[in-house]
Amino acid sequence: MAKSRPAKAPNPVGLFQHPDCSRHDTGWGHPEHQGRLRAVMGALERALPELHRDVTPHMPAPADTAALELAHAPGHIERIREVCERSVDTGRILRLDPDTPVSPGSWDAALAAAGCGVAAVDAVLDGTCRAAFCVVRPPGHHATRDRAMGFCLFNNIAVAARHALTRPGIDRVLIVDWDVHHGNGTQDIFYEDPSVFFLSMHQHPFYPGTGMADELGRGAGEGTTLNLPMPAGLASERYVEALVDGLDRALARFAPDLTLISAGFDAGVDDPLGGFTLTEADFDTLAHEVVGRTGSSARNRVVSFLEGGYNPDELGRNVVSHLTALRDATA
Question: Which residues of the chain have pLDDT under 50?
Answer without folding.
Answer: 1-8
